[in-house]
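Researcher: Please translate sequence to structure tokens.
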Amino acid sequence: MGMLVTAGLLVTATPEGPIRDGAVLVGEGLIRAAGPRDQVEALAPPGTPRHDFPGGTLLPGLINCHVHLVFDASMDGMGKVREADDLSLFLGMADRARRLLDSGVTTVRDLGDRGGLSLRLRDAIAGGLLRGPRVLAAGPPLTVPGGHCWYLGGEVADEAALRAAVRARAEQGADLVKLMVTGGQTTSGGAGMSESQFTPEQVRAAVEEAHRLGLPVAAHAHGTEGIAAAAAAGVDTIEHCTWLTGDAYDPREDVAALIASRGIAVCPTTSPGWRAMARWIGEERAALLQSRLPWMRDLGVRLVMGTDAGLPGSVFDDFAGSFTLYEELGFARERIIEMATSGAADALGIGGETGRIAEGLSADLLVADGDALATVEALRRPLFVVKDGVAHVPPPRPE
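Model: Translation complete:
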């Protein structure tokens, strides 16, 4: 049996716009109808279970485009992954997946695990063995020997090895390929954050091989040079996109224009703890790096939401905490919601399955406490979650 969910505000993430006093009818895991409450109620079969939230906002389930379920968000999480056995890691990943669902996230893209554990978790959730969001899994990210996150098992030495690793991921059932185009902050030794790990030719080869096999490519790129190489190669998404040359902020309008014209989505990976991170790196530098968000938006770059959950301080149970930065930067609240729902779904290639409240799509829903178009803080208070038509009541958030 399905269900009827009503709320004081319905945000469908479609061109129809928000509906006051709206409802969604769910049946067989799909959205059967959505619109004004009185109209949808009339379509509900007698005896349909109902869930009423007159003070809430009903919207599509959220999509976190960048997580690492294998990490636990602690300061020594990377060390733990290097030492733990597969079973311990998997159990921790399952717990973190459940916490994501508790927070209203019904789809995640896992962009780096150890040994393909995220693929196993994906299948366990899809098979109903575990509760959690839909998982799009990349498996171990491709990196150079000794490069960023080398210990996850994705080291490749040359173009031939790159192509072979891409083919191996396709054979293993990965949903996409993650390519560490530049270095990062969390791996000692090797390339720095702004330094490229792969040549433009190698990036192009990886993208060519992945696309030949029907796999999208997510490019980790902090450095401006690496961002340019990723855009030129035609990756599907660019992660972080910090625009660094050395330690300097170095945005290039020509590269941003190329990203926009090619429809490449950018996931800036904003942590829910962005305020604490700003204090850590310095308020002035933080403001400079944050300025890239409206700058890219104004140049027509498609932005999507992701938190890098699992890295130190980037927790799994407060996805919407990252939205507050965009609100402070002047992004419209409907745009913020779109970046975490329909826009994210389209960028990940699943817009025909989820990300909107529309007839025939998967019943992935979130009810938040309050008016999310008045403040995105409402989205930090989930009341009710539906994933694939299955209801899930989150535990109360600690005060």
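Researcher: Any highlights?
Model: The domain at 62-347 is CATH 3.20.20.140 (TIM Barrel).
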